[in-house]
């Protein structure tokens, strides 16, 4: 047998490593010196070793060949212009498009002309079953992303009212076969408003549980056909021990934004799948699958030295891919202060193309598997998220907690704490509170108002609003 290089080295145990570390510390406290606490209540250790490795089973992607797809978001205010742009980006590297539709009056025949059968995500900002039936007639293989609870959390109001929204949502789920109509959980508002990763995951679990409890409780007679649609399709020949995404009629859509903590975000996306599976099992839905769409968050983006936003979005997209996101649509570096433009869109798309075609991040499935550090993070995030989830359920559930203001208060507390750390220099935003670029001053005006704007309106609950971390610093430095 050929001798391996590692055979010449004696394995070092975790205890031996810790002993060596203690010697090198020369009396300094190990926990205070080398263990880093996070806002999520997780203590990051200096070493992670096979002796205490965490074994965790993370479900794989639901896509064919465990691949991930490059998409681009398109605002569909004008059908003809949106169609032209969609065809353009699909010919220049995008593998799908996310259609953001503001109203049901848009001409679908014009909007969808020559677009492919698959790879279309449709995000209507309204709940209109007639519109969806018309859309289904044109593109039955599109994925519609509708989330009535997100509507409540983000705007403070239902689309119509709670009873009507729930009834229409049930009809939406029952009226269409396949992935055209899935339960969607949009967590972007929580993350961008300042929720910690554990809070984001916990609110996802509580958010999803509201839907499963209302539509997929097999002890209730109503809407049992919705419940059955999430079960493996026995007619498709799927065995109980080999359930796949393709062997069931429905799954869970998860729309997310990507935070800045690289390894934590990888673990977060793995935890999303574990939590989905865990909740599904609780309702008797074995190995409930999900489809995760990810885009970089606006929270840490800045007008100050704005080219650094390119670096931020690159690492964020990379963490989502390694964590197992199915579709990634990038955020242009100037998306929050310039109108849509060819340069920003092309650079954002090419960032993803480089990750896929030149960094080969589509060649290895579940690349993070077996990583001691990421496995440990995934386990801790999942456990801590479940603890928060259980407390929400004891308080009456997620919607009830929104009406009582509990969720809003907790997010606000996390947001305030992070802003304090930024102000004190304990949190770094390159180009903002560290290493500023004096040669990149702020402008007096931008094409889009880059700061939080609150429009007074009557709401049922206090909406969860997001504000970029750098806004206060930017406003102080704005030229008079």
From TrEMBL:
Annotated InterPro entries: Cbl-dep_enz_cat, MeMalonylCoA_mutase_a/b_cat
SUPFAM superfamilies assigned: Cobalamin (vitamin B12)-dependent enzymes
Domain of life: Bacteria
Pfam family, one: MM_CoA_mutase
One GO MF term attached to the UniProt entry: intramolecular transferase activity
Gene3D superfamilies in the cross-refs: Methylmalonyl-CoA mutase
Domain Methylmalonyl-CoA mutase alpha/beta chain catalytic: 250-449
Protein name: Methylmalonyl-CoA mutase
């Amino acid at each position: 047998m050929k001798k391996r290089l590692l055979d010449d080295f004696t394995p070092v145990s975790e205890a031996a490593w810790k002993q060596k570390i203690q010697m090198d510390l020369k009396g300094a406290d190990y926990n205070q010196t080398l263990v880093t606490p996070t806002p999520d209540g997780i203590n990051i250790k200096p070493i992670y070793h096979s002796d205490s490795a965490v074994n965790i089973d993370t479900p794989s992607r639901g896509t064919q060949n465990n691949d991930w797809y490059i998409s681009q978001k398109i605002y569909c205010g004008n059908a003809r212009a949106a169609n032209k742009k969609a065809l353009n980006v699909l010919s220049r590297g995008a593998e799908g498009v996310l259609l953001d539709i503001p109203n049901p009056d848009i001409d679908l025949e014009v909007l969808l002309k020559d677009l492919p059968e698959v790879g279309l995500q449709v995000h209507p900002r309204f709940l209109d079953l007639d519109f969806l039936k018309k859309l289904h007639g044109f593109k039955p293989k599109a994925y519609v992303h509708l989330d009535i609870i997100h509507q409540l959390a983000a705007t403070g109001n239902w689309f119509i009212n709670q009873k009507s929204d729930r009834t229409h949502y049930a009809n939406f789920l029952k009226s269409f076969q396949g992935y055209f109509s899935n339960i969607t959980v949009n967590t972007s508002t929580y993350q961008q408003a300042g929720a910690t990763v554990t809070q984001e995951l916990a609110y996802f679990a509580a958010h999803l549980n509201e839907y499963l409890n209302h539509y997929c409780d097999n002890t209730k007679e109503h809407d049992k056909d919705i419940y059955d649609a999430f079960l493996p399709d026995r007619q498709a020949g799927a065995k109980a021990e080999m359930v796949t995404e393709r062997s069931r009629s429905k799954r869970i859509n998860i729309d997310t934004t990507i935070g800045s903590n690289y390894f934590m975000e990888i673990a977060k996306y793995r935890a999303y799948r574990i939590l989905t599976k865990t909740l599904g099992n609780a309702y008797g839905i074995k190995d409930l699958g999900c489809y995760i769409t990810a885009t970089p968050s606006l929270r840490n983006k800045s007008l100050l030295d704005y080219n650094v936003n390119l670096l931020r979005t690159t690492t964020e997209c990379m963490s989502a891919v390694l964590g197992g996101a199915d579709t990634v649509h990038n955020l242009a570096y100037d998306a929050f202060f310039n109108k849509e433009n060819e340069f920003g869109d092309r650079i954002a798309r090419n960032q993803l193309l480089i990750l896929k075609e030149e960094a080969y991040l589509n060649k290895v499935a579940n690349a993070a598997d077996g990583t001691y550090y990421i496995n440990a993070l995934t386990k801790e995030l999942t456990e801590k998220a479940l603890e928060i989830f259980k407390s929400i359920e004891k308080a009456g559930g997620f919607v009830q907690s929104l009406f009582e203001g509990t969720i809003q208060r907790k997010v606000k507390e996390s947001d305030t704490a992070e802003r304090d750390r930024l102000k004190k220099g304990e949190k770094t935003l390159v180009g903002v509170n560290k290493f500023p670029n004096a040669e990149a001053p702020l402008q007096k005006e931008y094409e889009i108002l880059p700061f939080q704007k609150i429009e007074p309106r009557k709401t049922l609950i206090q909406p969860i609003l997001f504000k970029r971390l750098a806004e206060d610093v930017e406003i102080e430095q704005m030229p008079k």
